[in-house]
Automatic annotation (TrEMBL):
Gene3D superfamilies: Medium-chain alcohol dehydrogenases, catalytic domain (3.90.180.10), NAD(P)-binding Rossmann-like Domain (3.40.50.720). It comes from Chitinibacter fontanus. This is NAD(P)-dependent alcohol dehydrogenase. Residues 16-343 form the Enoyl reductase (ER) domain. Pfam families: ADH_N, ADH_zinc_N. One of its GO terms (molecular function) is oxidoreductase activity. It comes from the Bacteria. Signal peptide: none annotated.
């Protein structure tokens, strides 16, 4: 730690404001580094819909004083005495679940906690400390701002389509909306040679999705029966993979639009939590539901290899300065974005 200057460092914490929270910027303590930890100077962070749910206090009442956000990328500036894998100067990003390194998901990964949730401090800070086995090297072709977009949204899309779904070239994929998870899923699936149908409330966003490689597009406002449209687009066969991001208002249509033997990747809550749809039709389609919770360090590394191989760059809608973190949250809430919203620490 000798020679590392972090005394003017700061972080944001969640401060109770009636029934929700607001952001408060406060000075940070000089971090203490354990033998297996690294100190990271954060270059940028990105926002996810989850961060908005936490700020709005959707179910979590125990985050008062917590540092929010799960996604960041930065540079290692100090290492603990027993750290083997990393050197000062390495460009890294922390994994959403610090304890899920590899193998199958275990409930203990969730109970131990995710960055920026009730149990673990997040990354909306100028400096963060991480265990050496809970971070990944970021792809060489990406800036810190681009890499900060990856940890939650891109790993989730990768885990769903490639790890659980074993996506093959020529298969069809339906993606709901044009937010962070959605656009990573589009870019990854298109690079794999899959045929992507994407839905949006905006024709302008759909045109941009087409330019990113979408095969077909549906405006879900103009065509609320988008499931029937998707069935027609696939010649009545249905879609092989559906990224279920909407929840209660989209789930029944996702089941209707699914192909025999297809996969519903159950990920999102954009229209709320529950109620349970009628799952009976899935039996007659011999279909799968894959519950997805972000992913492991191994998933993140596999994603990064694929991004490097295909030279894929995250779609960043807008960058906000570190001092404007609250404005970044307001912009996320407005749902005007196409892709990711980034907070830039180093100008
Ligand atoms: N299970 C997990 O591990 C996991 C991980 C990451 C995210 N998630 C969840 O996945 C969802 C997406 O997260 P995100 O961070 O990518 O969100 P986001 O970037 O905030 O995406 C917002 C976009 O979703 C679209 N949308 C909203 N309502 C929709 C509807 N009824 N039908 C279709 N699209 C709709 C809109 O796109 P248009 O403007 O184009 O209409 C909106 O702009 C959230 O519910 C989040 O909590 C879960």
């Amino acid at each position: 730690m000798q020679g590392v200057q972090t005394q003017h460092s700061s972080h944001y914490q969640l401060q109770r404001n009636n029934n929700t929270f607001q952001l408060q910027q406060v000075p940070s303590q000089q971090p203490a580094l354990a033998a297996d930890q690294v100190l990271i100077r954060v270059g940028a962070m990105s926002l996810n819909y989850r961060d908005l749910l936490i700020l709005r206090n959707a179910g979590q009442d125990t985050v008062d004083g917590q540092i929010p956000l799960s996604d960041a990328a930065g540079t290692v500036i100090a290492i603990g005495s027993k750290v083997q894998r990393w050197q000062v100067g390495d460009r890294v990003a922390p994994n959403f679940f610090p304890q899920w390194q590899d193998g199958k998901y275990q409930t203990q990964h969730y109970s131990h906690g995710a960055l920026g949730g009730a149990n673990l401090a997040g990354v909306l800070a100028e400096h963060i400390v991480a265990s050496e086995d809970a971070i990944v090297a970021i792809p060489a072709h990406l800036s810190l701002q681009e890499a900060a977009a990856l940890p939650c949204a891109a790993v989730t899309a990768w885990h769903a389509l490639f790890e659980r779904g074993q996506l093959q070239a020529g298969e069809t994929v339906l993606i709901q909306g044009t937010g962070g998870v959605a656009l990573f899923a589009l870019q990854l699936a298109a690079a794999q040679g899959a045929k992507v149908i994407i839905t949006s409330s905006s024709d302008e966003k759909l045109a941009r999705a087409k330019a990113l490689g979408a095969w077909e597009t549906i405006n879900y406002r103009a065509q609320p029966n988008w499931d029937e449209v998707a069935l027609a687009l696939t010649g009545g066969m249905g879609v092989d993979h559906i990224l279920e991001l909407g929840g209660p208002e989209t789930y029944a249509r996702s089941i209707n639009a699914l192909a025999s033997g297809g996969h519903i990747h159950q990920i999102g809550v954009l229209t709320g939590f529950g109620p349970t749809p009628n799952l009976w039709p899935l039996q007659f389609k011999n279909a799968h539901i894959n519950g997805i919770l972000v992913g492991s360090v191994a998933h993140f590394n596999a994603l990064n290899a694929f991004l490097s191989q295909h030279q894929i760059r995250p779609v960043i809608d807008q960058e906000f300065a570190y001092a404007q973190a609250s404005e970044a949250f307001d912009y996320l809430a407005s749902a005007q974005h196409f892709g990711k919203i980034v907070i830039n620490v180093q100008a």
